[in-house]
Amino acid sequence: MATLDIIGKSNPRYDALPKADGSMPYGEDMMPPGALFCGVLYTPVPYGRLKSIDTRAAERIPGVAAVLTARDIPGKNLRYGSNTPKHDGQPILVEDKIEFTGDALAVVGAETREALEAGITAIKVEIEASEGIWTTRHNEDTAEKRQVCDFEVKRGDIKSAFAEAEVVVERTYKTQLAEHAFLEPASGSSWIEEDGVLTIRVGTQLIEYYRAIAAMLGIPQSRVRHLGTYVGGGFGAKGMLTVEPYLALLTHLTKRPAIMAMGREEGIRTTVKKHPFVMHYRTAASKEGKIIGMEVDVVGDAGAYPYKSNLFLLGAMCIATGPYEVPNAQIRCHGYLTNNPITNAMRGVGSNQVCFAYENQINLVAKELGMDRFELRKRNFIQKGGKLATGQEIPFKPNLEGCLESAIKALGAPSKAEPGKRIGQGIAANITGYGRPFDDANAAVHIEPDGSAVVRVSAPDIGAGQGATLQSITAEVLGLRLDQVSTRLSDSATTPLSGITAGSRQTMMAGNAVRSAAEEVLKALLKGASALLEAAESDIRISGGEAWVTSAPERRVSAGMAAGKAKELGESLHCSHGFTTPGHEYENPERYMGGMGGWADYTFGVHATEVEVDIDTGEVNVLKHVAAHDVGRALNPQSVEGQFEGGAVMGIGYALHEEITMTEGDCKSQSFHEYLIPTSSDIGDFQSVILECGEGAGPYGARGVGEPPCNNAPAAVALAVNEAIGKVVYELPITPERVFRTIQGKKTNGRNGR
């Protein structure tokens, strides 16, 4: 790969220092003068009907400025993206039906926090509670009514494959309801600007929600402005509406600024969760160690409202065979509504659940064949041009062999076990998509006559350095120093719309749009430099904020002088550009949401874990973890390493600790005392291995890396535990109780432990 000036180097991010010293303003850090404190009354029962709501006592409390219910909503009482043709969506405020404990009944605005709490408490409601549905195991009538999606794909001759197989392995795997556990609570403020435009300033992963707010208020979309802040973690949950509708409704109706910050219990209770999956796998292999068939059935719990469960179960179906070439496959993924918390996007969107299952299957097949588990993987790794079960070709080099060898080498020989302990090592490969079909993003680049540049994109920066990445691309293309480029993000009034920061998509989507826009501006810059230096444009080089003649480097001018001359010549110093991904062609596109199945490209990797298991207690201690992925090209290696670490740690927590516990719709996990996320002491020695084959759909060959490291970490941990105890744990999280009962040969919590 060619050496570039900025791309490929670990340049300090411009947001690093303000985040470190605490000066970076987040959602709760701006309180408009005279703002009302905004809060919400949630349903006390998970399922039933709201018969009446009496706000009169609350309205009489000193300091309470407004109490709003569903009848006060002037426009559509519907949360964006939460409905389907078959199913009603989630209302902003309940009018009648209550579907889960996160449903909101009323919004209160008050002068003080004390008055706010008193006002919420004083609201009287009459609710007819009913018995809800807490499981995806329904009778036939109920199943049809509550089914939100049913996808199926067939490839090859699955019947013959299983008939001819030397080995058939059949198992069922289960994963849990998981919380995003972002550290910054959902928060923001709202006000009306001098021109009458309603403005909301909220930490979000998608500022395009201003359109949903306009629909709720019954006003033109141009009368709502959404300002995004830097986000202290989102992982998918802040890709949905959180505090925005309550703030907007309160400000619109009272004409007062407002501020709202969810408490931890409130956030866990109301925000979306990771889908629990039940996955039944049958894997067929030949005596030569080739996976010749795979039959998969995945059932997902969509929770109380459909949202985008169909999209994520479709995604799981597309990669359910893992990073392997499987010539014969039959995969079904279907989801059902329950009265549990809503499930939606969470780092991995279906990838980490199926990885836990298919990597367990690979190890079990290897054991049945008497073959080395690494050799079995090598014989079946998908290659460039290989096809997934859907028929989609892999467009770039996966380099799975390189990832596997690097991970094994970095993990090293097993540690020596202490008395009463056992050591196990696990290796898990994965495939993760990035960039959806029919996706689009827009960006603008402008260079001033002094040579400084501004890049404008709506993409929220959720902590992964999206803004710094776009700054680096702009500086690289225009030949400027980083300090000459400013980044403006997340303002629906001034930044071109680039969609959600999720799905590992922004580097590819916004990054390609920025690169294209900057390349157009570069043409003007070269013309200005050419005129000043009296040389052909093809003989001009721009780097470090200067332009010179390549054949006579002593002849040079500043980028500012070149830009100024370009302006004199009438050249445009501004360009807006878009980037769009095509859809995929399938034999039956109606089975793939019109071609929405799969991703634009895929990132591959291998994780290796070493664990220590206490045989007497079942306690698992991670000793080492290695994350190896081929990222195509690392635009900023330090940022890539940060994604490896953050993603893998999240995956380790998902494997060992994290689970939202529910009792008939009642959430028992109300804080980080009950919902345990990993700390630095839970991770052991960590090593990142960044491989670069130079191929990827993003700018300069980069691939999306935000989600992939989260996806095979749980499987790697699980396989390490299995090796340590000599048995297989089929359900996440791998708690000490579950490990102990597996060692004893007992079922865990009465569930299927085949």
Describe the structure.
The chain is an alpha+beta fold and 754 residues long. It folds into three domains: 16-23 and 439-580, Aldehyde oxidase/xanthine dehydrogenase, molybdopterin binding domain (Aldehyde Oxidoreductase, domain 4, 2-Layer Sandwich); 31-131 and 184-232 and 237-270, Aldehyde Oxidoreductase, domain 3; 277-436 and 587-743, Aldehyde Oxidoreductase, domain 4, CATH 3.30.365.10. The chain is 27% helix and 25% strand. The protein contains 18 helices and 28 strands. Helix 10 (351-369) runs parallel beside helix 17, helix 14 (506-533) crosses helix 15 and helix 16 (637-656) crosses helix 17 (708-725). The protein is globular, with a radius of gyration of 27 Å. Mean pLDDT is 95; it is low at 749-754.
Short description:
The chain is of the alpha+beta class.
Number of helices, where a helix is a run of at least 4 consecutive DSSP H or I residues: 18
Q: In this structure, how is the largest beta sheet organized?
A: 7 strands, mixed
Distance between the termini: 49 Å
Structural class: alpha+beta
CATH topology name of the largest domain, in short, is: Aldehyde Oxidoreductase, domain 4
How many separate domains make up the residues?
3
The CATH class of the largest domain:
Alpha Beta
The low-confidence runs, each spanning 5 or more residues with pLDDT under 50, are 749-754
Q: What is the H level of CATH, i.e. the homologous superfamily of the largest domain?
A: Aldehyde oxidase/xanthine dehydrogenase, molybdopterin binding domain
Give me the side-by-side strand order of the main sheet. Answer: 3-5-1-12-9-10-11
